From TrEMBL, chain A:
This is DNA helicase. Gene3D superfamilies: 1.10.1600.10, 2.40.290.10, Ku70, bridge and pillars (4.10.970.10), SAP domain (1.10.720.30), von Willebrand factor, type A domain (3.40.50.410). Residues 255-401 form the Ku domain. The gene is xrcc6. It is an enzyme of class 3 (hydrolase).
Automatic annotation (TrEMBL), chain B:
Its EC number is 3.6.4.-. One of its GO terms (biological process) is telomere maintenance. One of its GO terms (cellular component) is chromosome. One of its GO terms (molecular function) is telomeric DNA binding. It is found in: Chromosome; Nucleus. It comes from Dicentrarchus labrax (European seabass). Keywords: ATP-binding, Chromosome, DNA damage, DNA recombination, DNA repair, DNA-binding, Helicase, Hydrolase, Nucleotide-binding, Nucleus, Ubl conjugation. It is an enzyme of class 3 (hydrolase). The keyword rRNA-binding does not apply. CDD domains: KU80. Belongs to the ku80 family. This is X-ray repair cross-complementing protein 5.
Length: 555, 725
């Protein structure tokens, strides 16, 4: 990454750094300035090119170093360390090419972003322009994607004369129709994204078996997984170095470590301990080898909304495993979607996993105006519940609302309509955590504010509803009814309960003690009696209360 | 029902007539005992608070509280009302035998009623029930019939009868025999006069207790056994979650949520125990922390703090700081953020592991009306509420959708969690339809069309507009639990024996229904023809089963050829005399060498070889299976050569018997593929096996399985009966 140092450029650089740190900290990032007076690069073979950060995993230090260059103070520091000199984009690109080639790791993709506000960096020096173009095409040949992040300048930034040949052109529709959108909007970069980036990776590769000898190879992908805070790492207090944990099993008496063969597994039922070998415990779970086995098809309306036990996964053919898979898969997908049916399959997702039934729901590809895919083609795999997973409830008998009441609610509903988008809500818990972490790492005074997007906008709602809320309440609630209060009925019974709680006369209690009939009284009454006689009890069990009272009153 | 507690008396006839049976049929006593055993097993594993008592009648001795003046004789209260355990199961197994007396079943019923009344005093039971298992062979005393019926009604005791024969021949006989193969035992025998009279009496009693469905509680032993083979569904008491649904700050409705659907787990976990003592106290697990240095220096847990990765750095961030700085909220909440069209909430974006149903509180009619208005409004507009949901202060808030649900007898909102931005992974996949190379032709599409036609799991009834679903997943009990309890039960009752094979009914319940399998044969063949599927060869060992199977067919041949070559080569080894026992590297070769050398007796070499085979088989890996097969081939070949078939044949037979227990079906299939069977008379004179038997040896297994499937077909609608029991 290169930058012409400029306050707003630095801001974007900073935001790229902080986003990368959270989304994919394993990515290597470098920061190179060109057009500097001083030069600093690996073999110092390029003038006016200053490698501020070498290609490496970014951390807090780098963000702070970028911060150091910002503001008035920063500008002074930058002038001291780097100064301002001649511009040669060609040299800068060459230097970057060297940075890439010095890396021994295999990189999955390489990207170079040029931050500038000058559309003619060499002021028409055609030799330098040519050199830059040659270097750019060399870089592109080695698989580097070059993006231009240009700032607005008076008179407009004209990409055409020079940079058009430098940046990577959006690829032609490749054979499979996949193409990367060039990110040419600075705003996009400035928007900080605090979410871990996930690599597209199949969770499992299985065969979808339609019948004897008809196996379609498919990959299972998780497209929605509950994101959690990243796991904590344990550190040694003295040095802050990470520690490793080891778990071991040993014999209590002899203290010797137990080998897996010296351990068995047990459960107790009906007062009997049942013991099994460890591999027996595993073998119980095994029904079949992993795979999907087609049972049949059902119309979509047979898939009930409430039959939900875990997030769905996504199925896509693996042509690389069985040739012809994609064709049969595609035919199934088209026909299921056309006929509005889903495929019911038995699914064993891993070794020694018991079977589950799943619905394969067809999903056709959807693309937006820019021909960018927003819904991929494939089957969504919906896990279905077994009989054990449905609980028997006892729904209360309640009168239904009248049409007038329903219509009033419809008005309310219509007032509060919005277009739901699944990506619109951030998880406030995770967002807060990342901000806290950032604040600690970068020695900030306080973490940035988190906007809780799943908080109802109460004022707006109230405003939109206006008198509707009151009107609805008048229709359904009697005067004096307050749904906010704790259960009305409960309070009544609460009062009713308190009465017998009142003290039992002393002579009556003594009679109970004598006859040994204290057990007839309830626990609250007994507790009350204990208080009455100043008996201190440690326990709350009935027998303990009775015992305490008996010893006191018998004495 | 979850959360309720019942008391049940099992009252079993052990009198002499119970041992009578027609030739070839199991005596009623054995069947009745099975019913009781199965039932008690289920109770033990269900681990609920239900209590059980066992009363036997027709016993030689008399032991019951009503035993007076020669009345209520030959009736024994074997076990008083208590929670059943394995002790009871063992007692039933070992102490309940057919005895030689007869007792009046009506008297026995009175003893049971008395027992229920005295032993449930002071305890709260929701249900009292007596299950009578008898063949009704004794003349029943009808003197106090009215009093007894009146008492049953008053005490709220329900009755169930289990008989060797169906109560209503005329209706049930024909229809059932089709389904279950052979008719019920006892039906053919014809009933005695006593039985007929008693049966009328039973009907009279049952109908006076319940005019309409009384006879539904009369079962045959056969039916009961079949239905009881399934372990009980896991049931949990639904926990109420009272809250308020809020729309802005002015409108709130009181609601109560209940978890309606969630992936149920087994209540008990496996405990690690010491292999010798079986005591869990002997085993301790401990986690230690150590520095990442050469000495792996251990540090105390107290000397560690927690940190989080921030790029290349790790930032120390103590628990205390974390708690102080973390996101906090106001606790329990069900607040509407807004309303949206149902179709914008995609089914595959449901998150979490549960569906919560929201009702109005039981005692609050007004909340009921208000909630009903919301539910109906949403239902009519085809919309959902998007809500913020927090279970309590400690748990993280969620965003989710509340769907309206209007049913015949109730209305509710169904809450499902939806994803956060961080949860979504926007993967893109290459287009399938726009790719000319991949897109299916019209004939291919029509093949898929007819496949779908043949495999529809719904049937249209002629008289009904509704479609009947023939494969309801939510009626299938979780097979993992069924298998788990089956194995636990087996181990508890037969310690020291290998685990049993899977129950055939369970296996069948997971398969494609027979109708579908038949119907889809031709369309599947068509698919096979129209869509060429070619497995891509890979160097890496492939893992999926089908791929392994695909290769297995060829491999043995290759190995066979190798075996022949090696024989020559082995002569060199023999000269050196290096082979002294059957090693693990190439046991088949060692075996051949040792046979040739004759340094050890044939029997001993064979024993060494079978020992190696057993070792190999314990690895459950195709590679080792192949090796085992070459060993067995060598075993066979040498046995034929030496004309000694006995050792080989007996080993192979015992191996076959152990296949299901050791779950070596895959291996057995390989053996079948290679047609490695017993050595027949034709090959070795001394063999006791005929050529036909040898051929059959490999086939038998399959047939058995096929035969087992249909009998287990009928597993539907069991819950109702079991609930009643």
């Amino acid at each position: 990454m290169k930058s012409k140092r400029k306050e707003s450029n630095l801001e974007v650089v900073r935001s790229v750094y902080t986003s990368k740190i959270i989304s994919s900290h394993r990515d290597l990032v470098a920061l190179v300035f060109y057009g500097t007076e001083q030069s600093k690069n690996p073999r110092n073979s390029f003038k006016y090119v200053y490698v501020y950060h070498d290609l490496d995993e970014p951390g807090a230090k780098r963000v702070q170093e970028v911060d150091a260059l910002r503001g008035e103070k920063g500008a002074r520091l930058a002038a001291e360390t780097m100064g301002s000199g001649e511009t040669s984009l060609g040299d800068a690109l060459w230097c970057c090419a060297n940075l890439y080639s010095d890396i021994k790791l295999r990189l999955s993709h390489k990207r170079l972003m040029i931050f500038t506000c000058r559309d003619e960096p060499h002021r028409g020096d055609s030799a330098k322009d040519r050199q830059a173009r040659t270097k750019a095409s060399d870089l592109k040949e080695t698989g580097v994607i070059i993006d231009l992040m240009h700032l607005m300048k008076p008179g407009g930034f004209d990409v055409a004369p020079f940079f058009r040949d430098i940046v990577s052109q959006p690829e032609d529709e490749s054979e499979l129709g996949l193409h990367l959108e060039p990110c040419d909007k600075l705003e996009d970069l400035q928007k900080r994204v605090r979410a871990k980036e996930q690599k597209k990776r199949a969770m499992a590769r299985l065969n979808l078996c339609l019948g004897e000898g008809i196996n379609v190879a498919v990959g299972i992908y998780a497209t929605a997984v509950t994101a959690r805070k990243p796991a904590a790492i344990r550190l040694y207090r003295e040095t802050n170095e990470p520690v490793r944990s080891k778990t071991r099993t040993f014999h209590m008496q002899t203290g010797s470590l137990l080998l897996p063969s010296e351990i068995k597994k047990a459960q107790t039922y009906g007062k009997k301990q049942i013991v099994m070998e460890r591999d027996e415990v595993d073998s119980i779970k095994k029904f079949q080898d992993p795979g999907l086995y087609l049972i049949g098809f059902k119309p979509m309306e047979k898939l009930k909304t409430h039959h939900h036990i875990r997030p769905a996964v996504f199925l896509y053919p693996e042509e690389g495993e069985v040739k012809g898979s994609a064709c049969l898969f595609s035919a199934l997908l088209m026909k299921c979607s056309e006929r509005n049916v889903f495929a019911l399959c038995r699914c064993v997702s891993r070794r020694n996993y018991p079977p589950r039934f799943v619905a394969l729901v067809p999903q056709r590809e959807e693309v937006d105006e820019g021909k960018v895919q927003f819904t991929p083609p494939g089957f969504n795999v919906i896990y279905l519940p077994y009989a054990d997973d449905l609980r028997t409830l006892d729904p209360p008998q309640c009168p239904s609302a009248s049409q007038i009441q329903v219509d009033k609610m419809k008005e309310i509903v219509s007032k509060l309509r919005f277009k739901y988008r699944s990506e619109a809500f951030e998880n406030p818990v995770i967002q807060q955590h990342y901000r806290n972490l950032e604040a600690l790492a970068l020695d900030m005074m306080a973490p940035e504010d988190t906007e809780d997007l799943i908080m109802p906008k109460v004022d707006q709602i109230n405003h939109r509803l206006g008198p509707l809320a009151e009107e609805f309440k008048d229709l359904v609630y009697p005067a004096g009814y307050n749904p906010e209060s704790k259960s009305v009925a409960k309070r009544k019974t609460g009062v009713a309960e308190k009465k017998p709680k009142a003290e039992v006369p002393e002579d009556e209690l003594r009679a109970h003690v004598q006859n040994g009939t204290l057990g007839k009284l309830t626990v609250p009454v007994l507790k009350e009696a204990c208080k009455q006689f100043g008996v201190r009890t440690t326990g709350t069990k009935k027998q303990e209360l009775i015992d305490a009272l008996t010893t006191r009153l018998a004495a | 029902m979850a959360g309720t507690k019942s008391a049940l008396v099992l009252c079993m006839d052990v009198g002499f007539s119970m041992s009578n049976s027609a030739p070839g049929e199991e005596p009623p006593f054995e069947l009745a005992k099975k019913v009781i055993q199965k039932f008690v097993q289920r109770q033990v594993f269900a681990e609920n608070k239900d209590e059980l008592a066992l009363v036997l009648f027709g016993t030689d001795s008399t032991k019951n509280p009503l035993d007076r003046d020669g009345q209520y004789q030959n009736i024994t209260v074997h076990r008083h009302l208590m929670i059943p355990d394995f002790e009871l199961l063992e007692e039933i197994e070992n102490q309940v035998h057919p005895e030689s007396q007869q007792a009046d079943w009506m008297d026995a019923l009175v003893v049971c009623m008395d027992l229920l009344q005295t032993e449930t005093k002071g305890k709260k039971f929701d249900r009292l029930n007596v299950a009578l298992l008898t063949d009704l062979s004794t003349q029943a005393n009808q003197d106090h019939l009215d009093v007894i019926i009146e008492n049953l009604k008053q005490a709220g005791i329900t009755l169930q009868f289990f008989l060797p024969f169906p109560a209503e021949d005329d209706e049930e006989g024909g229809g059932d025999s089709d389904r279950r193969g052979p008719g019920h035992p006892g039906t053919g025998k014809g009933l005695s006069r006593e039985q007929k009279e008693s049966l009328d009496l039973v009907k009279h009693v049952m109908l006076s207790l319940d005019e309409e469905d009384g006879l539904d509680q009369v079962y045959t032993f056969r039916d009961a056994i079949e239905q009881l083979c399934m372990f009980k569904r896991i049931e949990r008491r639904p926990m109420a979650w009272p809250c308020q649904l809020t729309i802005g700050s002015c409108l709130s409705i009181r609601i109560v949520g209940y978890k309606a659907v969630t992936e149920e787990r087994l209540k008990k976990m496996w405990v690690t125990v010491d292999a010798q003592s079986n005591q869990k106290e002997d085993v301790k697990r401990e986690t230690v922390y150590c520095l990442d240095d050469d000495n792996e220096t251990e540090v105390k847990k107290d000397d560690t703090i927690q940190g989080f990765r921030y790029g290349s750095d790790i930032v120390p961030f103590s628990k205390v700081d974390q708690d102080q700085m973390k996101y906090k909220h106001d606790g329990k909440c069900f607040a509407v953020l807004g309303f949206t069209k149902q179709n914008l909430v995609r089914r595959h974006q449901f998150m979490g592991s549960q569906v919560v149903k929201m009702f109005a509180p039981k005692d609050d009619e007004h909340a009921g009306v208000a909630l009903s208005a919301l539910i109906r409004a949403l239902d009519e507009l085809q919309m959902v509420a998007i809500v913020r949901y927090a279970y309590d202060r400690r748990s993280n808030p969620q965003v989710g959708a509340a769907f309206p649900c209007v049913k015949q007898d109730y209305e509710c909102l169904m809450y499902v969690q939806l994803p956060f931005m961080e949860d979504l992974r926007q993967f893109t996949f290459p287009s399938l339809e726009n790719n000319k190379k991949l897109s299916p032709s019209d004939t291919q599409l029509s093949a898929v069309d007819s496949l779908i036609d043949s495999m529809m799991l719904v049937q249209k009834d002629d008289d009904d507009a509704d479609q009947k679903d023939i494969f309801k997943v939510h009626h299938i009990p979780n097979p993992a639990f069924q298998r788990h309890f089956q194995c636990l039960h087996h181990r508890a009752v037969n310690p020291g024996t290998p685990l049993p094979p899977m129950e055939p009914w369970l296996k069948a319940a997971l398969e494609r229904p027979d109708v579908i399998s038949e119907r889809c044969q031709a369309p599947l063949e068509e698919i096979k023809r129209k869509f060429p599927l070619i497995e891509v060869e890979k160097k890496k060992k492939l893992k999926t089963s089908a791929q392994i199977f695909g290769k297995d067919a060829e491999e043995p041949d290759a190995k066979k050829a190798k075996g022949d070559e090696e024989e020559d080569y082995n002569l060199a080894d023999i000269a050196e005399g290096s082979v002294t026992s059957v090693g693990s590297v190439d046991p088949a070769r060692d075996f051949r060498t040792l046979i040739k050398l004759k340094s050890l007796p044939f029997g001993e070499v064979c024993q060494q070889l079978t020992h190696r085979i057993e070792q190999l088989l314990s690895n459950k890996n195709t590679h080792y299976y192949m090796k085992s097969i070459t060993c067995i081939q060598a075993f066979r070949e040498q046995s034929v050569k030496l004309g000694n078939a006995d050792l080989y044949n007996s080993y192979l037979q015992s191996l076959k018997r152990s296949i299901p227990n050791r779950r070596l079906e895959v291996f057995w299939d390989l053996l079948v593929q290679d047609a490695i069977t017993l050595i027949s008379k034709d090959e070795v004179e001394g063999s006791t096996v005929s050529k036909n038997e040898a051929n059959q040896f490999l086939v038998v297994e399959e047939k058995k399985e096929e035969a087992a499937v249909p009998s287990a077909e009928d597993t539907g609608d069991v819950d109702d009966l079991l609930d009643m029991m």
